[in-house]
């Protein structure tokens, strides 16, 4: 496999359509078995490898029991697998310890947890929370609510026409009253990779806590929280080849200890009397109720799967797909790629010849090409760019250049019909 | 106010004749091109149908004979085509006929049923639901 995407793109043509097949395609039964499908909606959710499917099935067949309530061996086995999953996630993301990993349903719930339980510790009237105009709604609305609770203001960093954050505007909007900075690692709509380590350093220097929405990064970037330096990192399992309904908030331990519980009930307590309750230490303090045990075990299997890959090779494969798709789509008359940041994840948003994104999306679907069309849950970004929405093709490690060719052929056909 | 440009029988006959998706969608898009555009003054927030990712505006009223008069428009071609089918199905109908009409069966017959699923976000479901509630209020 070539390592320089730019060179390889220049050499491609129709004759080389099957060039650069994905070596991991066979690991994903849904992808491998549906030959007529070009699945390019990976930013919405990814398919699951056999290893993940097997892990979930094995859990239910062999070890299903409630966790942390061991009066029997089955529960011991389930608890061990469940806590081993936490260790695996901690190691993959570079958390200081497994105690910093709180299971959530996904990124949305993780951000809501921070907004509900951390914001009250720091936000007061006249303070502000700094987000950006490219955020997913799940990294906007929780902060709107937190700000309105405490009389704080929500500020949003501008986005440049190429889809990069306006770093001057970031500096201008960050001040001593900024208590929380919440930014996406990777834009779900445009694929822009934000310089979160640099921005975290600036925010920390100004005295703000930093929350990173890693939903779109976890499958594509090797994340090391020690290097990023942020206080909270949120991600979803289902966007990194794991089941739906499981994700995590990874938070700095001293902050988690200071935070009050947010949802209450079983599992999160230490001792309950009718008069008063003492709470379990983190992470359990934030995990009321029976957790998604099968999901956590499936996520651990996805982490194992990713750990066993040569991730540099994955990154290079995805960079090649992005470069090839960019070059191929750019050859279509009247097609405009939206989001041309220097550092991009394998996401391509585009508009073509004034066609409505939904028309393109529906006609691609008829041709077996699965994309997303619309505002991508980033309406303020679309408003900033002056667009009703875009068509978004997003790639995963099992995609190949043949999928890109299918996309290009299908776009040509769609435009001929419209 | 003759909002219809193709009758339901014509549409059914044409769709029955097509044996591939391309012809079906080309015809659907052509149907959409033929519906009269809604004047700008009716493209208001009030007439906007919620639940549509493409924009859809709908104006519905019953005349003195209780016949449904519909004017619907969208900024997307395929949705306009679907609207043409909806107009053919409902325009000029009595409230009772409107409520009774089996729209699922029609879209299934035309192999367009997937557009009625709630996940599509194209608003066809919301359009039909608004028409039915207008008729139910009249009935």
Give an overview of the whole structure.
- The complex is a heterodimer of chains A (418) and B (139).
- By secondary structure, chain A is α/β, with parallel strands linked by helices.
- Chain A has two domains: 5-48 and 310-417, Aspartate Aminotransferase, domain 1 (Alpha-Beta Complex), CATH 3.90.1150.10; 53-308, 3-Layer(aba) Sandwich (Aspartate Aminotransferase, domain 2), CATH 3.40.640.10.
- Helix content of chain A is 40%, strand content 16%.
- Chain A is built from 16 helices and 15 strands.
- In chain A, strands 2-8-7-6-5-3-4 form a seven-stranded mixed beta sheet, sandwiched between helices. A four-stranded antiparallel beta sheet of chain A has the order 11-12-15-14, with helices on one face.
- In chain A, helix 5 packs parallel to helix 7.
- Chain A starts with a helix and ends with a helix.
- The model of chain A is unreliable at 1-17 (pLDDT under 50).
- Chain B has 139 residues and is mainly α.
- Chain B has a single domain, classed as Sufe protein. Chain: A (Alpha-Beta Complex), CATH 3.90.1010.10.
- Chain B is built from six helices and two strands.
- In chain B, strands 1-2 form a two-stranded antiparallel sheet.
- The radius of gyration of chain B is 14 Å and the shape is globular.
The main sheet of chain B comes to: 2 strands, antiparallel
Number of strands of chain B: 2
Task: Estimate the helix proportion of chain A, in percent.
Answer: 40-55%
End-to-end CA span of chain B: 21 Å
Q: Considering the protein shown, what is the CATH homologous superfamily of the largest domain in chain A?
A: Type I PLP-dependent aspartate aminotransferase-like (Major domain)
CATH topology description of the largest domain in chain A: Aspartate Aminotransferase, domain 2
Q: How many H/I helical runs of chain B?
A: 6
